[in-house]
Design brief:
Helix content: 55-70%
CATH topology: Four Helix Bundle (Hemerythrin (Met), subunit A)
Order of helices and strands: EEHHHHHHHH
Number of domains: 1
Number of helices: 8
CATH architecture: Up-down Bundle
Number of strands: 2
CATH class: Mainly Alpha
Strand content: under 5%
Length: 172
Protein backbone atom coordinates (compact mmCIF):
# COMPACT_ATOMS: atom_id res chain seq x y z
CA UNK A 1 0.00 0.00 0.00
CA UNK A 2 1.22 3.46 -0.87
CA UNK A 3 1.67 5.95 1.98
CA UNK A 4 -0.06 9.32 1.72
CA UNK A 5 0.75 12.62 3.34
CA UNK A 6 -1.88 15.23 4.11
CA UNK A 7 -1.17 18.18 6.35
CA UNK A 8 1.74 16.30 7.92
CA UNK A 9 -0.34 13.21 8.71
CA UNK A 10 0.43 9.85 7.17
CA UNK A 11 -1.73 6.81 6.61
CA UNK A 12 -2.41 4.37 3.83
CA UNK A 13 -4.26 5.21 0.67
CA UNK A 14 -6.22 1.95 0.69
CA UNK A 15 -7.40 2.39 4.29
CA UNK A 16 -8.61 5.93 3.70
CA UNK A 17 -10.36 5.06 0.44
CA UNK A 18 -12.16 2.14 2.14
CA UNK A 19 -13.07 4.33 5.08
CA UNK A 20 -14.49 7.09 2.91
CA UNK A 21 -16.70 4.65 1.01
CA UNK A 22 -17.96 2.92 4.13
CA UNK A 23 -18.72 6.00 6.18
CA UNK A 24 -19.63 8.35 3.31
CA UNK A 25 -17.26 11.03 4.56
CA UNK A 26 -14.83 13.38 2.90
CA UNK A 27 -11.50 11.75 3.78
CA UNK A 28 -9.22 14.57 2.55
CA UNK A 29 -11.20 17.01 4.69
CA UNK A 30 -10.98 14.69 7.70
CA UNK A 31 -7.22 14.34 7.28
CA UNK A 32 -6.82 18.13 6.97
CA UNK A 33 -8.62 18.57 10.28
CA UNK A 34 -5.98 16.51 12.01
CA UNK A 35 -5.28 13.23 13.66
CA UNK A 36 -7.44 13.87 16.73
CA UNK A 37 -10.38 14.51 14.40
CA UNK A 38 -9.68 11.26 12.53
CA UNK A 39 -9.56 9.36 15.79
CA UNK A 40 -12.75 10.87 17.19
CA UNK A 41 -14.74 10.40 13.98
CA UNK A 42 -13.77 6.75 13.66
CA UNK A 43 -14.55 6.07 17.32
CA UNK A 44 -17.95 7.73 17.06
CA UNK A 45 -18.79 5.72 13.94
CA UNK A 46 -17.66 2.48 15.56
CA UNK A 47 -19.71 3.21 18.67
CA UNK A 48 -22.84 3.80 16.57
CA UNK A 49 -22.33 0.50 14.73
CA UNK A 50 -21.87 -1.35 18.04
CA UNK A 51 -25.07 0.20 19.37
CA UNK A 52 -27.09 -0.71 16.28
CA UNK A 53 -25.79 -4.30 16.30
CA UNK A 54 -26.55 -4.74 20.01
CA UNK A 55 -30.04 -3.31 19.59
CA UNK A 56 -30.62 -5.81 16.80
CA UNK A 57 -30.00 -8.63 19.27
CA UNK A 58 -32.66 -7.28 21.65
CA UNK A 59 -35.97 -7.95 19.88
CA UNK A 60 -38.14 -6.68 22.73
CA UNK A 61 -36.31 -3.37 23.02
CA UNK A 62 -38.77 -0.52 22.54
CA UNK A 63 -37.74 3.01 21.57
CA UNK A 64 -38.44 4.13 25.13
CA UNK A 65 -36.30 1.41 26.66
CA UNK A 66 -33.55 1.98 24.07
CA UNK A 67 -33.37 5.61 25.10
CA UNK A 68 -33.19 4.59 28.77
CA UNK A 69 -30.51 1.93 28.26
CA UNK A 70 -28.36 3.56 25.56
CA UNK A 71 -28.96 7.25 26.29
CA UNK A 72 -26.78 9.53 28.40
CA UNK A 73 -25.98 7.91 31.74
CA UNK A 74 -27.74 4.69 30.73
CA UNK A 75 -26.11 1.37 31.60
CA UNK A 76 -25.08 0.77 27.95
CA UNK A 77 -24.10 4.34 27.13
CA UNK A 78 -20.31 4.04 27.02
CA UNK A 79 -18.14 2.58 24.31
CA UNK A 80 -16.46 0.33 26.89
CA UNK A 81 -19.78 -1.29 27.84
CA UNK A 82 -20.90 -1.54 24.20
CA UNK A 83 -17.68 -3.41 23.36
CA UNK A 84 -18.26 -5.80 26.27
CA UNK A 85 -21.91 -6.36 25.31
CA UNK A 86 -20.94 -6.98 21.68
CA UNK A 87 -18.48 -9.62 22.88
CA UNK A 88 -20.99 -11.23 25.30
CA UNK A 89 -23.60 -11.36 22.52
CA UNK A 90 -20.99 -13.00 20.24
CA UNK A 91 -21.09 -10.13 17.77
CA UNK A 92 -17.29 -9.82 17.95
CA UNK A 93 -14.39 -12.17 18.63
CA UNK A 94 -11.78 -11.87 21.37
CA UNK A 95 -9.40 -10.28 18.82
CA UNK A 96 -12.05 -7.75 17.80
CA UNK A 97 -12.68 -6.95 21.46
CA UNK A 98 -8.94 -6.49 22.04
CA UNK A 99 -8.62 -4.12 19.06
CA UNK A 100 -11.81 -2.23 19.98
CA UNK A 101 -10.52 -1.60 23.49
CA UNK A 102 -7.22 -0.30 22.11
CA UNK A 103 -9.11 2.01 19.74
CA UNK A 104 -11.16 3.20 22.72
CA UNK A 105 -7.99 3.80 24.74
CA UNK A 106 -6.41 5.84 21.95
CA UNK A 107 -9.65 7.79 21.54
CA UNK A 108 -9.59 8.56 25.26
CA UNK A 109 -6.00 9.83 25.03
CA UNK A 110 -6.97 12.24 22.26
CA UNK A 111 -10.23 13.27 23.94
CA UNK A 112 -9.04 13.86 27.48
CA UNK A 113 -6.03 16.10 27.07
CA UNK A 114 -5.30 19.69 26.24
CA UNK A 115 -1.93 18.70 24.75
CA UNK A 116 -1.58 18.54 20.99
CA UNK A 117 -1.24 14.79 20.45
CA UNK A 118 -0.50 12.85 17.31
CA UNK A 119 -0.18 9.25 16.22
CA UNK A 120 3.58 9.75 16.55
CA UNK A 121 3.28 10.34 20.32
CA UNK A 122 5.10 7.51 22.14
CA UNK A 123 2.19 6.34 24.30
CA UNK A 124 -0.20 6.26 21.33
CA UNK A 125 2.36 4.46 19.16
CA UNK A 126 2.81 1.91 21.95
CA UNK A 127 -0.95 1.32 22.12
CA UNK A 128 -1.31 1.04 18.34
CA UNK A 129 1.52 -1.50 18.05
CA UNK A 130 -0.78 -3.88 19.94
CA UNK A 131 -3.47 -3.67 17.25
CA UNK A 132 -3.86 -6.74 15.02
CA UNK A 133 -3.48 -4.44 11.98
CA UNK A 134 -0.15 -2.88 13.02
CA UNK A 135 2.66 -3.06 10.46
CA UNK A 136 5.93 -1.43 11.45
CA UNK A 137 6.51 0.20 8.06
CA UNK A 138 3.04 1.82 8.01
CA UNK A 139 2.81 3.30 11.49
CA UNK A 140 0.28 3.87 14.24
CA UNK A 141 -2.24 5.99 12.34
CA UNK A 142 -2.56 3.44 9.55
CA UNK A 143 -2.99 0.64 12.11
CA UNK A 144 -5.70 2.65 13.88
CA UNK A 145 -7.60 3.39 10.67
CA UNK A 146 -7.32 -0.18 9.39
CA UNK A 147 -8.45 -1.64 12.73
CA UNK A 148 -11.45 0.70 12.79
CA UNK A 149 -12.41 -0.20 9.20
CA UNK A 150 -11.98 -3.91 9.97
CA UNK A 151 -14.20 -3.65 13.05
CA UNK A 152 -16.83 -1.52 11.33
CA UNK A 153 -16.97 -4.03 8.45
CA UNK A 154 -17.43 -6.90 10.86
CA UNK A 155 -19.99 -5.23 13.13
CA UNK A 156 -22.03 -4.06 10.12
CA UNK A 157 -22.64 -7.71 9.21
CA UNK A 158 -24.62 -8.05 12.46
CA UNK A 159 -26.88 -5.06 11.95
CA UNK A 160 -30.32 -6.23 11.08
CA UNK A 161 -31.98 -4.23 8.35
CA UNK A 162 -35.62 -3.43 9.04
CA UNK A 163 -38.06 -5.75 7.32
CA UNK A 164 -41.69 -5.30 6.35
CA UNK A 165 -42.39 -8.28 8.61
CA UNK A 166 -40.77 -6.80 11.73
CA UNK A 167 -43.10 -5.66 14.47
CA UNK A 168 -43.44 -1.88 14.51
CA UNK A 169 -43.00 -1.26 18.23
CA UNK A 170 -43.06 -3.25 21.46
CA UNK A 171 -45.07 -1.81 24.34
CA UNK A 172 -43.18 -1.20 27.57
Amino acid sequence: MKNIQANGHSGTTKAYIELGKKLAIDIPEMVKRGQASTCMLLSAALEEYFEDAIKGKLPRLSKTKAKKWFGAYGPISTLEVKIEFAYLLELISAEHKHDANILRGVRNKFAHTTARLSFEWAEIVDMCTKLSTFKKNEGAEAAYVLAAVKLIDHVKTHIKEPSLFDPVEHKD
